[in-house]
Amino acid sequence: MFSELKPLPTDPILGLMAAYKKDTNPNKIDLGVGVYKDEQGHTPVLKAVKKAEAFRLENETTKSYIGLAGNLDYCDKMEKLLLGNEHPALLANRIRTAQAPGGTGALRVAAEFIKRCNTDATVWVTTPTWANHISLFEAAGLTVKEYPYYDYENKGLLFDEMIEALKQVPKGDIVLLHACCHNPSGMDLNAEQWQIVAELAKDSGFTPLVDIAYQGFGSGLEEDAQGLRLLAATVDEMLICSSCSKNFGLYRERIGACSFIAKDAVVADVANSVLLSVVRSIYSMPPAHGADIVNTILGSEELTQEWHQELAEMRDRINGLRSLLKDSLNAKGTSQDFSFIERQNGMFSFLGIDKAQIDRLREEYSIYIVGSSRVNVAGVSKDNIAYFADAVATVLK
Ligand code: PLP
Ligand code: TYF
């Protein structure tokens, strides 16, 4: 049976991560995988997380099964983190949440759930989007189509084209939107644009699915959720897939959530039984550790405050690096203008260089960038910025 299989390529981003690890050049720079790094190039465990883990070690009383939806206190707290404490959808008891193994697990659960709601649903994703979006929805048997989003030429948004395309999306289809810090472009919708999308969803009847994997990495926890909250206040139904990988630094603990908002509480309960049946058919129940950590942090004023501070530090560092990158690259006097880097959000931007230049950066300078020219801004530091800017200027000559 196995000998009939043909080999498949590895995920290019994860492949790049492995190649970087093997590289022995002391000047190597990893701008590939979307993981936050501090000035020393480390991805540390947050102090608030360490404290919550110590608490868990002392106070955990059972390893018995957790239940299909996972940690219910965690689910409640995530709903509030996503929507804010007083959101009308929360107050009307229209939202339900299942803890999921990472944002990816949440998306996969959402995909199967969508399939149960409408076998023929098409999922519309931004051009471009996180590559996993496409493979993950297709793996669930859904059709995936793209709508215009990033303007490669002007390093902005193709908003008018996006709206024209979304006007054609029929009722019953899903439109995936990145809440903030768009992966891979860093270009986000502003509040006015979110409102236009929300009105369109309400009028034409497509169901929004908001993927929020970087809440707090753009402008702030509240600011980064504003589009999501606006949508949730406008439409009857939507899905939300969230991840605690980045903002809590819990990547390998695999913690996220799959939430949906229904028209009313009665519909929400029925739909929730379907969501939980989907969970049961995939992995039965989620693991406990990550949810317990997040629940402990969000349940303690002191730890929440400490987490907010640590998150702000990560965000400020990223935004500072965006300015530094722009200044350093523009100072090289190449024909490109890198000012767009400062206008974009989160860890990613497209540098806008070609494949041969990306290969040269890797082969000659040990600088690792994804093939689309997406860079993880957090991989830059004050120590390596000059080396990086010189290398980019050289390959652009
Ligand atoms: N959605 C987007 C847009 C992402 O960039 C990522 C990756 O980090 C995820 C979802 C999934 O995150 P997780 O690592 O929690 O599965
Ligand atoms: O886009 C990124 O780099 C992150 C991390 O299969 C990631 O979202 C990348 C690829 C992958 C899983 C996570």
Automatic annotation (TrEMBL):
The record ties this protein, via Gene3D superfamilies, to: Aspartate Aminotransferase, domain 1, Type I PLP-dependent aspartate aminotransferase-like (Major domain)
Q: Which InterPro entries match?
A: Aminotransferase_I/II_large, Asp_trans, NHTrfase_class1_PyrdxlP-BS, PyrdxlP-dep_Trfase, PyrdxlP-dep_Trfase_major, PyrdxlP-dep_Trfase_small
Q: Known PROSITE patterns for this protein?
A: AA_TRANSFER_CLASS_1
Q: Which domain of life is it from?
A: Bacteria
Cofactor(s) for this UniProt protein: pyridoxal 5'-phosphate
Listed A to Z, the keywords are: Aminotransferase, Pyridoxal phosphate, Transferase
Its Enzyme Commission number(s) read: 2.6.1.-
The molecular function GO annotations come to: identical protein binding; L-aspartate:2-oxoglutarate aminotransferase activity; L-tyrosine-2-oxoglutarate transaminase activity; pyridoxal phosphate binding
> Which PANTHER family does this entry report, sorted A to Z?
ASPARTATE AMINOTRANSFERASE (PTHR11879), ASPARTATE AMINOTRANSFERASE, MITOCHONDRIAL (PTHR11879:SF22)
* Protein name as it appears in the record: Aminotransferase
Species annotation: Pseudoalteromonas rubra
Q: What is the lineage of its organism?
A: Bacteria, Pseudomonadati, Pseudomonadota, Gammaproteobacteria, Alteromonadales
